[in-house]
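Q: What would this chain look like folded?
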Amino acid sequence: MRSVYAGCWSSQRYVSLVMPMLVRPTIRGTMDDLHELSGLVSRLGRWLDEKSPGDGRGLFTEDAEVHTPGGVAKGVDALVEQARRNHRVPTQHFITDPLIEVDGDQAAISANLLVVFAREEGPRLLGERYELRAARTADGWRLSRVEARTIWEVANV
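A: My prediction, written as structure tokens:
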């Protein structure tokens, strides 16, 4: 347990207060961690929309797993192939409201996802919930697990 120190003026004199406060270190990381993890989530959406350029190692750990409506892939090479196979038409991923919990060198991220697939026969829209896991590596934070759970879907809008 930590304490918060505060003070105030009362009857012409300064009074110090000590208030105990429960600290839950798994709820927040450092501001640098939160900033980097938020950027990692944004880069995931952009990477998918740009048709998965490169080898994915700037986003994923070597042993990363992906569980999406498009299938399951294990290992960075397999998940890059799956992303390319499932995102051939123009797409736009809107990832919002990330809730980030950092616990040492591991992080859990929950976020909303709206993805639009611009198909010739008409757009397909998916409302999903991302459950992401990230690991701190020597090169910074990388995604170790991506799970997309479909909440709703509309095709040929």
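Residues 31-49 form the longest helix (19 residues).
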